[in-house]
Amino acid sequence: MEDGQGAAPATGAADPGGGRAGEIxxxxxRGLRWSVLGNLVMKAGSFVMSLVLARLLVPxxxxxxxxxxxxxxxxxxxxxxxxxxxxxxxxxxLEEIAPTATVVAIASSAALxxxxxxxxPYFAEMSGNEGATGVIRVLSxxxxxxxxxxxxxxxxxxxxxxxxxTRANLVGFCVNAPVTIGLAATGAGAYxxxxxxxxxxxxxxxxxxxxxxxxxxxxLDRAVAGRLLVFGLPLCVSLGIEGVLxxxxxxxxxxxxxxxxxxxxxxxxxxxxxxxxxVGTAIRYVALPGFSRxxxxxxxxxxxxxxxxxxxxxxxxxxxxxxxxxxxPSVVVLLYGERWAPAAEVLRFLAILMVVRxxxxxxxxxxxxxxxxxxxxxxxxxxAVALVPALxxxxxxxxxxxxxxxxxxxxxxxxxxxxxxxxxxxxxxxxPLASALVRPLLGGALAAAVTTALAHVTPDIPFVRLCVxxxxxxxxxxxxxxxxxxxxxxxxxxxxxxxAGTRPVTPGPxxxxxxNR
Length: 517
Prior knowledge:
Blueprint: H1 19-56, H2 59-78, H3 83-89, H4 94-126, H5 133-148, H6 150-159, H7 162-185, H8 191-212, H9 222-257, H10 259-272, H11 274-297, H12 299-326, H13 328-336, H14 343-369, H15 373-426, H16 431-436, H17 438-457, H18 462-481, H19 484-500
Helix pairs in contact: 1-7, 1-11, 2-4, 2-5, 3-6, 3-9, 4-5, 4-9, 5-8, 6-8, 7-8, 9-10, 9-15, 10-14, 10-15, 11-12, 11-14, 12-14, 12-17, 12-18, 13-14, 13-18, 14-15, 17-18
């Protein structure tokens, strides 16, 4: 028998009370904590590994790897034909879809791998380095592994067993790092990255298959396959457009302004991507299965979930955006030095983009959970159509600052309204969100005012300014936005944790058969 033949629901957007929705929320919170923890450890480990490799490899090796990574990342967007999302969202029992989904995912990833094996030399030549061909072929094989394990990964997400996914990913990284470093030390060059990632992906895949405990079987039900593709293919197109949204500015800025300004712009963009990469990725692990389970209940439960999730997300991200926007020069100079100071003017506006990016990503997951994947295509397409000409105009008029202003303006004036419209047309109650967002927005305005005022009277020392002005602004936001009762409960938890000392923590029970449906 398959373990967990349905979805183990979760989303942090559920009513914290009792009942099905409350259980969804509690299980989502646990899954989110594991996802954030896994992301933190992986990011820290990757940073340390990059420091070691920087001393073993030459810049040309990193350049070859960057070309191969770009190719494999593009394939990753459409690798499984949307099977993972479709399995997570599936209304019904997992055993109904698993055999067909397995065939579709493997066939899709194998076909794409075959295509990229053939086009790898042309892609490498187009990128200016024919030596990247072999590295592309090896690195792209990791996507083949993802296709083989797609249904099992989806089963873990569907049950919100992020702890098992996190452990599998961490063990895979523990294989990836020594293989990569060992090969680099022996002169393997850019191949060290590719073989290390492939080895890590293979180990992670084995652990995912074992921990998912889904019987490995294959079969093809044409009706099920049709439903999978109707759901998954529009989502693949939407994610492909999302890739354009994330990379169009780099292409346009580089083409219009040259390599040096692009370097400043990319530095600011990378800083603005830290929170989406860390918190946003973790949220996406839980949002799709959680909202899918709420949608199975009724639209009212889903709307309540959205009504809690969106203000919560804004409350978490907005104070970070305020600090990045108001204290951008201090952030850039402290982290990278005075010579990178021109990136600060870009970061001020990309901090706004960061908030909209995370809201739009959450909306895409909500729409996918409802089966409205075509709406995600129109949302991202409308954003992209407005963004490209705006970036061209902004870069020509005001350089990298103009491009950043264009990005932020399109996000606020086009992407945000399109997001609200898509949710409304899908049947989500959007109007209550306006009142729920009043306090976070007022808190953001207060935080910006406090931070700006204190920045003018604080010594021009980046660390001091961030601690004093940024800390005071964040505190002002918390005191205004977080209810006093919630602050009291949080203080009580902290006190209880301190009093608990080293008492062992008893893990929660495994999901029951009924919960897994």
